[in-house]
Amino acid sequence: MAGTSCHVADTTITPSLWKTGDPVSAPRAMLGGVEIGSVSPVFAGRAAELAVLHDALTPGHGLPEPEAWMWAGLAETLYALGQWPGAAEAAGHATRLGQGAEPRAAGALKLAHLALAHGDLAEAARRLATARAHVDSHGRMPHQSLPLARVALGVAAGQGRLADARAELRRALDRGLPTGAHRHGWPLLRAAATAEADTRTLPTARSGRAEILARLAETARTLTTGAPLWDAYDQWTRAELRRADGRDTADTWAPVVTAFEGLDRPYDLARVRLRLAGALLTGGGTEDRDRALELLRLSFAVAAHIGARPLTATVTRLARRARLALTPGAAKGAAAPCDPAAALGLTAREREVLRLMAAGRTNRRIAEELFISPKTVSVHVSNILAKLGVSGRGEAAALAHRLGLFTAQDRLAAG
């Protein structure tokens, strides 16, 4: 886990500490006997990330597998800090060391969350299925069901299955969010609000949108904040709901960015900076463009460093549309280099469908070649037409060829 480290009190967590030759006792060695109550300022205001860690190390808490839970808690913290290789390794330890279902489920779910953030939807779905298999669906508690729903919603939204994403949200909310569920409730609400905002212009998303947005807003009013992290998530969720209604402005996003600038969560900060940049570019003034460029460069640097490919693509696409150069040394006004398909907002699956559409395949043929249902193909086609701003398959194929979305090898494979 080269290059990964974090600090707890005066102890620096480095590879040499968790690769001690004894992966079971390594987590305690990493803490060097430090009490959780004396953690350093790097964790200040972020009790949520340390909650599982605290439980695992508290004498008499009764957890049968403290080391596995320790790794799961460490994975959560390293994810928040943007140290994703370390988070993946810690989550892997949780899945391997856990003898019971719950710590293995926690490790698998964090690996699914990481895969989702990396843009690997197939891996995220596979890890999610593993996590679900470890937990009895009838006996799931909110601390289990809500994180599962959050990742499932993200996978469905990433694959263009908005109806399935909404179904995951409804099931979670129908169970209710009891007192204390805010740690897992806020990430779910924020993810759902973002999915609605991202699909605001899609015709297929209109039906049922008002009901979902109203329910999200109502649930958000009932959730606890009271800590800097959850105050920030509250503001973020409400800002996404405004974006879903097309009512967000720079004034909407500026306080959200300020809230996350006080937390050690670089991925979250990069995402809200992207939103503020987009709102500033809508204004169109020179000063706003300069500020937006600064924000986009900061977001791009974080996304590229941690390997958040969907965020990288979104930042690049916005910069390209605004004709802003993400590389400081590039010529003024030059468009940022970008994969044309990513610039159009096409997912990997939508690109596959468009390639076959451009080759003249029918929905049934596309379904057969991609091993999906014709109904799913139809949903993808509708999303593709909306994203390309065209009204028919012929126009979509012509635009794809005109923009050079597919290489000769792509066309040969489709033919």
The description of the largest β-sheet is: 2 strands, antiparallel
Number of strands: 2
- For the record, the count of structural domains works out to 4
Secondary-structure-based class equals: mainly alpha
Q: How many helix segments?
A: 22
Mean pLDDT: 79
Tell me the layout of helices and strands.
Layout: E1 6-8, E2 11-13, H1 15-18, H2 26-31, H3 47-57, H4 66-80, H5 84-97, H6 101-118, H7 121-134, H8 142-158, H9 162-175, H10 182-198, H11 209-222, H12 228-244, H13 250-261, H14 266-283, H15 286-306, H16 309-321, H17 340-343, H18 348-358, H19 363-370, H20 374-388, H21 393-402, H22 408-414
Antiparallel strand pairs: 1-2
Helix pairs in contact: 3-4, 4-5, 4-6, 5-6, 6-7, 6-8, 7-8, 8-9, 8-10, 9-10, 10-11, 10-12, 11-12, 12-13, 13-14, 14-15, 14-16, 15-16, 18-20, 18-21, 19-20
Key features?
single chain, 415 residues, mainly alpha, 4 domains, 1% strand, disordered N terminus
Description:
With 415 residues, the protein is an all-alpha fold. The chain folds into four domains: 1-135, no CATH class; 140-245; 249-338; 346-414, Winged helix-like DNA-binding domain superfamily/Winged helix DNA-binding domain (Arc Repressor Mutant, subunit A). Helix content is 67%, strand content 1%. It has 22 helices and two strands. The chain has helices at 15-18, 26-31, 47-57, 66-80, 84-97, 101-118, 121-134, 142-158, 162-175, 182-198, 209-222, 228-244, 250-261, 266-283, 286-306, 309-321, 340-343, 348-358, 363-370, 374-388, 393-402, 408-414, and strands at 6-8, 11-13. A two-stranded antiparallel sheet has the order 1-2. β1 (6-8) and β2 (11-13) form a beta hairpin. α3 packs antiparallel against α4 (66-80), α4 (66-80) runs parallel beside α6 and α7 packs antiparallel against α8 (142-158). The longest helix is centred in the last third of the chain and has 21 residues, at 286-306. It starts with 5 loop residues before the first strand and ends with a helix.
